[in-house]
Amino acid sequence: MPDKTPITVAHGDGIGPEIMEATLKVLERAGARIAPEVIEIGEKVYLAGHSSGIAPESWASLRRTKVFLKSPITTPQGGGFKSLNVTIRKTLGLYANVRPCVSYAPFVATKHPKMDLVIVRENEEDLYAGIEHRQTDEVFQCLKLITRPGCEKIIRYAFEYARANRRGKVTCMSKDNIMKMTDGLFHKVFDEVRAQYPEIETEHQIIDIGTARLATRPERYDVIVTPNLYGDIISDVAAEMTGSVGLAGSANIGEHVAMFEAIHGSAPDIAGKGIANPSGLLLAAVMMLVHIRQSDVATRVHNAWLRTLEDGVFTADIQGAGQARIGRPFGSMDFADAVIDRLGTGPAKLKPVEYADAPQPRATPRPLYVRQPAARKEIVGVDVFVHAADVTADFLAGRLVTLAHQPRPAGFKLQMITNRGVKVWPGGFPETFCTDHWRCRFVGVDAAGQPRAVTHAEVVDLLHNLVSDGLDFIKTEHLCTFDGEAGYALGQGQ
Ligand code: NAD
Question: What is d(CA 201, CA 259) in angstroms, rounded to the nearest whole number?
């Protein structure tokens, strides 16, 4: 008997303990070579005073085993409690969220019988960086951060996943027609990486039309790679389209640690009744088995599970989702026993799975990202954000033009003012609605009015001038060039 792989297991809250018990029973009977270490997470831990839902000592188990099979947890209502999932993903660098969405027609009712796709969602960046500020009375900001290492890691992961799982096409979805710098970087890196996988078909779609096509023709997709927010939304849409969210598992993959869980929550409404569907967690466990290179067991479990569906064995949630009723719905443990009874068999009509211990993406020799040499960076101006109510753009500009040229003649020139991104000076439209939040763009100019690079000290001088004149600046963003290329977007209408 080969050594058992240690894994960390958390039974979670609500239906969590029931579906974990059912899942571990199937794994054990299928011959999974695992040694579970149990940790406590969730409601009890939150209420014991750990605001992140996990006790400090539990991290040691996760860092030791590097594999986490997790049941859903209940996040207590009220402020002060941080999302455990976000904490775990970020702390352990679980950058890839992988969610297969597969239809099991005609055995599970769905409008999309041919759906078989995998969404690879970036898991750490984008608007989920959690950097939010209230800037004025009227304006709140959430910072969208997209990084080159983040893009390279997730996009390369998607291609390596496609290659390892014999999937022939990768679709990138972004909104780079609007967010030319952030989503533009995601698209650009996709173009760079796809050139290294010539055997894989590729395409890029704008997220809105991509989502529409996913919802109407999901069979045209294979692997989809997308930034965090879009991925969060489309992966729930796609899972629901297969017939039930109760059927989907997901993996959160990092360079060191991986976490596997069902996509649903702790379902407090049915907790303790023994009727929850353990399938989502069971399929997450199948992904875990592939990850720890026990593809033989993963294949046995998955095929037995497919056969169970074909035999009309369903928990109440599936029967309730428009499924033809075949007798009494099965409880969680009876369902697990039905899967166990079918170990060694496979589906007759659905496509059987066959996992191979192919090198996993995290183990590939190709680096997930390559840090590039630093570019030559110059500051050529500054956007100063000002809080001012009951003023017009022309009035504000009048003050700023004078201030820009103090204390030197060769200083800054006020180039434009925007409000919510729209240019309102020079030459604004009276119809444009303005809030109390103004972005004032200053560019460095020499005595002849020609563009020039500026220093941090000059920016500080400029801000000093503004504050001395009674203006309330909220923040600044430097306008930089990187090897001569502008690192900032134009204002709308500029
Ligand atoms: P939910 O997914 O728990 O439940 C939504 C509906 O689906 C409920 O009617 C529930 O009974 C049903 N359902 C879910 N899983 C099922 C299963 N396996 N079998 C049968 N029916 C199932 O979503 P919710 O009600 O919005 O959230 C409940 C709690 O779960 C909240 O505290 C939320 O924060 C938490 N949550 C946790 C996770 C996680 O730990 N990964 C994810 C989502 C929600």
Answer: 29
Q: How far away, in angstroms, is 184 Cα from ligand 1 center?
A: 35
Split into its structural domains, the chain has a count of 2
CA-nearest residue, atom 4 of ligand 1: 267
Question: What CATH number does the domain containing 418 carry?
Answer: 3.30.70.1570
- Residue 351 shares a structural domain with residue 405: no
Task: Give pairs for 3-6: CB < 8 Å, separation 24+.
Answer: 3/33, 4/33, 4/34, 4/35, 5/33, 5/34, 5/35, 5/65, 5/67, 5/292, 5/294, 6/34, 6/35, 6/36, 6/37, 6/64, 6/65, 6/67
Residues 315 and 386 in one domain: no
pLDDT in tens, 361-409: 554 446 778 888 999 999 999 999 999 999 999 999 999 998 887 666 6
Look up residue 366 and give its DSSP letter: S
Measured distance CA(227)–CA(313) in Å, rounded: 37
59 Cα: distance to centroid of ligand 1 (angstroms)? 25
| Domain hosting residue 395, numbered range | 377-486
Note the pLDDT tens digit of each residue in 105-148.
Answer: 988 888 999 999 999 999 999 998 889 999 999 999 999 999 99
Q: In CATH, what number is assigned to the domain containing residue 41?
A: 3.40.718.10
Instruction: Say yes or no: 403 and 452 in one domain.
Output: yes
Does residue 413 fall inside a structural domain? Answer: yes
Rounded distance from Cα 76 to ligand 1 centre (Å): 13
Ligand 1: residues with CB < 6 A are 15, 19, 72-75, 85, 246, 261, 264-270, 276-277, 280, 317
Give this prediction's pTM: 0.91
Pocket of ligand 1, candidates 74, 108, 245, 266: which has the most ligand atoms within 8 Å of its Cβ, to mutate?
Answer: 266
Q: Are residues 386 and 351 in the same domain?
A: no
Residue 80 is assigned to a structural domain of this protein: yes
